[in-house]
Amino acid sequence: MDASLFKLTSLNLNGIRSAASKGVEDWIAATGPDCICVQEVKAQAADIAGKFDSLAGMPGVFHFAQKRGYSGVGIYSRHEPSDVIAGFDPEEFDAEGRYVEARFDTPTRKFSIISSYFPSGSSGEDRQAAKFRFLAKMHAHLMRLKGEREFVLCGDINIAHRKEDLKNWRSNQKNSGFTPEERAWMDMLLADNENGGIKDVYRCLKPDTTDECYTWWSNRGQAYANNVGWRLDYHLATPAIAALAREESIYKGEKFSDHAPMTVGYEMKL
Question: Is Metal-binding one of the keywords UniProt gives this record (predicted)?
Answer without folding.
Answer: yes
